[in-house]
Amino acid sequence: MAIQKTQRGSLTVFSLVMITIGSVDSIRNLPTTALFGSSLIFFFLLAAIFFLIPCGLVSAELAAGYPEQGGVYVWVKKAFGQPWGFLAIWFQWIENVFWYPTILSFTAATIGYVIAPQLAQNKIFLISVILIAFWGATLINLRGMKSSARFSNFCAVAGLLVPMTVIIALGISWVATGHHLQVNLSPHSLIPNFHESTMWVSLTGIILSFCGIEIATVHAQDVKDPQRGFPKALMFSTFFILITLILGALAIAVVIPAGKISLVSGIMQAFSIFFAAYHLEWLLPIMALSLVIGSMGGVSNWIIAPTKGLLVAAKDGNLPEHFAAENRHGAPQRLLIYQAIIVTLLTSVFLLMPSVNGSYWLLTALAAQLYMLMYLLMFAAGIWLRFKDPEHARPFKVAGGKLGMCIIGGMGMLGSLITVIVGFIPPSNIKVGGTAHYETLLIFGLAIMTLPPILMYMRQKHCGELALPST
After folding, report:
1. Which entry of 139, 198, 293, 310 is 20 to 30 Å from 335 by CA?
2. Domain spanning 13-462: which superfamily?
3. Cβ(129)–Cβ(107) under 8 Å?
């Protein structure tokens, strides 16, 4: 489908769908969820009911009713006041800072796997590729939204839809042709053992793989007719994401034993097995290139979207005026540069953990915790605005009136809260350096990353620059 220019901005519904799918439906998440075998189907469906669907519905209503630039910052601000809005966009932004090294470690491992498989576990190689790729994506986004949108659309098709379709097709073929399966797909095996803590830990990876369905809403001023465009794009994206993530994760699980799945190179492991079985080894470098393109597109989407929301908050006075600067392309140049510097520092976590998988999981858990705090605020805002501002025009509304919004938003809050709790349980099948080491790093990271907006609010309150939160 061709991308058409709009009168209002540079993004069409197709572009919104590509940005949303490219941001959420990441093939790099598949090894994390494949670790848990056939029971992943149960957890995917559970996460869809208590997180993905509520998130899609609530964010679609908020985006249609309040389509101003800024996304979650605007919604929470209107519900609870400016300081809470800033806290929400801060959580969304800082979560991504921790997420970037994980997706780019997948990129690095993919490149390394083609050159020499052992490079996928080489920390120095991973760190080097992460930094080169992230700074390169930052430079692309410094050229503005139009440049970023073109790059993201290309990456979503060539780097996500193509490899996702291929691995799902290979997995279906593997099962249909009677090959040996590494997981039991009988109906009985689909129900997990709820007494095993590891099963609940899997919810962290699965929920995080669903995060970001609301991400395109920060582009409100770049879209023609956002009241119609956002709900349509979000609903289509929700269905597509759920189906592809389940089938893609199962495709990996059926060919690689759970204990041998690498979180950073599991996709390449699976492709290697599939291609060897079907005598298609020549396709491996092509798939690697496609995966690199896809992950770079995901990074590009996330680099610009939360930063634009943070820019709106900065212009509202939540950050010093220094951070509100834009370049001639309309890009938040200083925020983008500072973001790249922080990511450079955070990438050193790969040197602090005993294994690459351990580093990957710690960053994943920390990102999930921070993001869930944002979602708790978003769901609460959706519910409260129904009561606070009931007459406000909402071209798209969650069905069932106030009660319906309370049920859907409450389900989303419950899913988010459970994810926060189980995030403190270290996975038994990944080397994280012991429970105490893992939980100390996680708690320390959460405390440090939550502190800046609180200190900023206290400073501005002391100076009389911000009003108290709304009640």
Report:
1. 293
2. Amino acid/polyamine transporter I (1.20.1740.10)
3. yes
> Where along the chain do its domains lie?
13-462
- What one-character-per-residue DSSP string does 80-94 give? H-HHHHHHHHHHHHH
How do the pLDDT tens digits run along the chain, 471 residues long?
Answer: 333 333 445 567 777 777 777 667 667 778 878 877 777 888 888 888 899 889 888 988 888 788 777 788 889 999 999 889 999 989 988 888 877 877 787 778 888 877 887 777 777 888 888 888 888 888 877 776 555 566 666 776 777 778 889 999 999 999 999 888 888 777 776 676 666 655 666 677 788 778 877 766 555 556 666 666 666 777 787 788 888 888 998 999 899 987 788 777 788 889 999 999 999 989 998 988 888 887 777 677 677 777 877 888 888 888 888 888 888 777 788 888 888 888 888 777 666 665 666 677 777 788 888 999 999 999 999 999 999 999 898 877 888 899 999 999 999 999 999 888 888 877 766 666 677 877 888 888 888 888 888 888 777 776 655 444 443
CA atoms of 52 and 168, how far apart (whole Å)? 21
pTM (predicted TM-score): 0.77
